[in-house]
Write the structure tokens for this entry.
Amino acid sequence: MNTIVNKALGFFQKVPSAPTNPQDVSEFAAFDIKDLYASEDGSENGQLQLGLDEKLRQAYFWITNTAIISPFYDIEYEDGESKRFVFGDSKVEVTLPQGQSYSSFVLIPLLTLAVRGKCLIVGGPGRGKTATSILMGLLAGYSKTDVLRAIQHGQPQMTISDLLGHPLPADMVKAEKTSDIRIAWRKWLGMRVKIIDEYNRIPTRTQSALLTVLSDNYAEIFDQIFECPQAAWYLTANDDAGGGTYQVIEALKDRIDIVIRAFHFNTRFIEDLQKRIELNYKPESMIPEEIIFTEEEMDRIHEQIRGITIAPPLRKRLEFFCRQFEFFESSSDKLEYMTKDTAKLSGLDFRTLFRKETGKDHVKDLGSQTKNGVSVRKIMTLLIYAKALAYFRGNKQVELEDIRQILPFVLHDSLVPHLESPYFDQAGNESYRVDRIVWLRKLFDLSCEEYMSQDMDTEDPVEYFDAQFRQGLENVSKKEVDRRLLEIEKQLHKWSQEKKLYGYRHDDILKLKYFHQRYTNYRRWLQWKK
Amino acid sequence: MEKISYTPLIQHLQENGTLYNQLYRESELKYGSVDRAVLSRWMVQTVEPIVRAVDALYPDHLPQTFRTCYTYTLELLGNKSGIVHEEEYQAAWRLCEKVPSLAGLYPGRLLSAINAALDSIRAHQPERVMQWVAGMEVTLRYVPSLEEFLALGRIHAWLVGMAHLRERAQLEFAKLRDVLRQALQSSYPHLLVDNAFEQEWLDLPVPKFIYSPGGYVGYGGAFTAPPKVAQLGNQLLATDGEQPYAFFADAFGSVLLPEVPVQPKAILKRSNLQGLEAFFAKFGKQAIPFDDVISAVLLPTTLVLTRASSHHLFVYGWTR
């Protein structure tokens, strides 16, 4: 009997064989000053990387195959012709992807660990939210005891001291000034994986203290500062819609990089549960050593992820998508202030202002589907997570599909849908009101279609001006500056002939105005220099 | 790929890797990525020898020297000048090896001056950049101060055709120490023998056609229409009706300086044929075979004229 149990446990500790995603591999292109000199040991930087992205994939497959029962492949990669089937009255389409696909519930926490992001896991009780977070702590090299002790369980009586630490009682009596009071900081503050369970049950005042740690990486009590290391954050919530004991403050919500939903349990896997009970199997106690990352390895992964490239055509698609949303024509009569932010700050009803935007095709205008734009923080998050996904897949360049797959999770809580938009009333679009992941992915697809229809890859005047400007102004003559200014003015005139103004054009116009201003200032400087 | 092998420099790079990676990223944000092989070639062939020379003299100045060279290299490679004109810049930067004391004390000012000189010479006398570098190389070992380096740079620039520096070069030459003057004279014997500072044209007893700068803008010239010349004070100006230029010419070359603060209309208004008539009166008509001259300026030893059928300036010179 013992032999059978040992064999079974050995199976649970088995790490998937490498390569988990076979493909051509080549050296990473990111610059390092080390490349310029001959190192004593003669080692090459690229060699270590090959092991680390593979190790990350092995960790993913170990979790999905043996630790967490998550038989969902919602991050789909197609490789050739995939078979499709349609079910039910709603004609729901199921695709059988030919490429390696992943479960967002496992993959995104793993990517969060790699990029040291802040991940919110939302879902009902018993869906494995906390278990996934604990596994991430274990993968980062902490012991189970350390990880369990470090979890901050949100509860209505949680104080700032509970969260951050206590002043030493002896110092409280002796100290003549607050800076003399030493603080017994909580151990979790110094960890590289931080888990806040049920964060929406933390009282508002304590949430503010949490915000400081989350956003600025330091904690403060009695004028004493604790500098926290860069960490991956996992926050869980039973009900993201504010149904916890306390309303989550906006600033805290805004700091969260990515949101995932815990899936329901597929009852066809109850047999697996039964086996776990019989074998007394606890994945967190049996994590294989081969997939545990050292601090140095995590640093290296982070560095390599930043080195993943995003090709200009891809970045342009992302730029085109992001600039659809902020523009709001009825909020001002000056182009710079025609934003949804202006409308929000005014306190006026968004719907009332929206109704003033007449004459535009609101079904076609993607900007009509949201109540806000995409923030800088979110764009940066999107870029780093897209890089992380490409890295995880063993690529050295981000693909369009990487952005398409990761984008809905990054913008899940930050791009607020304008549910009264006529777009949602169109036949077949009603479900987008309910499911944000699918809506955001559709939104990106529509934006890419529009991008292609405008032939922006070859016909983008701003790119032309940008390339010219990037060459620098050194040694550019006044005559040349005058020529460029005239070109900008001609382009603006051309655009001014278009009847309707859409979000993507808003940023284009402002960028040309920026170039115009830079050239004008340079021309003035040239004249002064003479 | 070539790699840096100088041990003190490698040690410095190992200790300050983050700083140099950050500088690279800043440059990458501004200009885009730089070809690693080209950067490496620059570091090994140009920067490392400078650093070696400086380190031998002032070991404490190695970090500052390398950092400056690295920053300037990134800038040159980023804006592509260091790739398009690699040979010229590398040769010019190697001048720093000859003056390690200056390279160690003022690396930024030295490289900045060299780059500015190359830019300027390339704009007016593109085929003579290497001549300037060679001239500097011969006389450089006598230079102990930055001021003398700059003065020498201007004199050599004038000698490779930057005619607008003539007066300045004359002043700088007068202030030079004897050893430097002698070095210059041995490189350019006619400097004093032929009295090059006093005479714009050397050994020309009668007026002679020298050269015809300018040209149509479509062929890389300066003018969109046949230009006209006029004299304003001591200054000779030329314009095609759109862009005004100041014109300087002597035996070493000519320069058309753009963007002078004069309205093209004012130049056109002052242009005339009086200079040509005075020239005819003094030297006769046989030297000028054209019948479509539209403007001319007569200076003490120079005649500059323009024609209705040409985008060039025609320069005649004679020794005083």
